[in-house]
Design brief:
single chain, alpha/beta, Rossmann fold, seven-stranded parallel β-sheet, about 40% helix, about 15% strand, binds guanosine-5'-triphosphate, binds magnesium ion
Length: about 220
C-alpha cells in the first residue's frame, strides 16, 4: 500500500512538472491557452467551430482535440478554417500534460495568439489535471439539467469561465436558469457565466469578447 502511494505521488509530481513546463512554453510564446471541459455533447467542438468562423480574421488560433477515439472533432475544426491536432487517449478519461507537450510539435506556437484544448468529454477527470493552461472553461448545456454545478463541484469551482450552451432548447426542457446560476455561484461566486447558443448564435458575442479580452490581457 505504501509503495502504491509513493508511485502515485511520483506520477502526480511528474504531471505537475510537465504542466509547469507547458505553462512556461505558452508564456514565452505569448499564446493564450484555454482548456475546455464538459460532459460529452455539451457543445465544446461546436463552440470552437463558431469561434473559428467568427474570430479567425482577428486572431491566429489552433485547437488540440482530445477524444478516446476518432479524429472527427479535429476534422470539424479544420473544416471551420483553423489548424487542429487530434489526440486519441485510448481509454484515458482526460488529456495529460505529456500528450499536450507531444502535440505541440504540430504547431508553431509563436505564430499563434490563442490555443484551445478541448479535453475529453466528462466533468470528472479533466478537472484534476493541469495542462499549463491560463484559463479553464467549463461548459454545460440545457438538456443535461441545471444541477451539474452541484453534482460536479470541482470542475465548476476551478473554472475561470462557465458557458451555458443550447439556450435555444430552454423551452423544451425543465432547465431553470435561476437555479443554474445559483448553483454555479454556490461553488464559484465570481466566475462569469456566459449563456449562449451555438445553433442560433445568440449570446456568442459575449464569449468572443471574453476570448479577445483574455488574449489582450497577456500583452
Ligand atoms: N440545439 C442545439 N444543439 C447544439 C448546440 N450546440 C451544439 N449542439 C449539438 O450538440 C451535439 C454535440 O455537440 P458537440 O459540439 O459535438 O459536443 P462536444 O462537447 O464537442 O462533444 P464531445 O466531443 O463528444 O464531448 C451536436 O449534434 C451539435 O450540433 C446548440 O447551441 N443548440
Ligand atoms: Mg467535441
Amino acid at each position: 500500500m505504501a509503495k502504491r502511494i509513493r508511485i502515485a505521488r511520483r506520477v502526480v509530481a511528474e504531471s505537475d512538472r510537465l504542466a509547469a513546463e507547458l505553462a512556461e512554453r505558452f508564456r514565452e510564446a505569448g499564446v493564450f491557452v484555454a482548456n475546455l471541459m464538459s460532459s460529452p455533447g455539451s457543445g465544446k467542438t461546436s463552440l470552437l467551430e463558431e469561434t473559428a468562423r467568427r474570430l479567425a480574421a482577428d486572431l491566429r488560433m489552433a485547437v488540440i482535440e482530445g477524444d478516446l477515439a476518432t479524429d472527427r472533432d479535429a476534422r470539424r475544426i479544420k473544416r471551420a478554417g483553423i489548424p487542429s491536432c487530434q489526440i486519441n487517449t485510448g481509454g484515458g478519461c482526460h488529456l495529460s500534460a505529456r500528450q499536450v507537450l507531444d502535440a505541440l510539435q504540430e504547431f508553431q506556437l509563436e505564430a499563434l495568439d490563442v490555443l484551445f484544448i478541448e479535453n475529453v468529454g466528462n466533468l470528472v477527470c479533466p478537472a484534476e489535471f493541469d495542462l499549463g493552461e491560463r484559463r479553464r472553461v467549463v461548459l454545460a448545456s440545457t438538456p443535461e439539467g441545471d444541477d451539474k454545478p452541484i453534482k460536479y463541484p470541482v470542475a465548476f469551482h476551478k473554472a475561470h469561465c462557465v458557458v451555458l450552451n443550447k439556450i435555444d432548447l430552454l423551452a423544451a426542457t425543465d432547465f431553470s436558469l435561476e437555479d443554474f446560476r445559483r448553483y454555479v455561484r454556490g461553488v464559484n461566486p465570481a466566475v462569469p457565466i456566459l449563456e449562449l447558443s451555438c445553433r442560433t448564435g445568440e449570446g456568442l458575442e459575449g464569449w468572443l469578447d471574453w476570448v479577445r479580452r483574455e488574449r489582450a490581457a497577456l500583452e
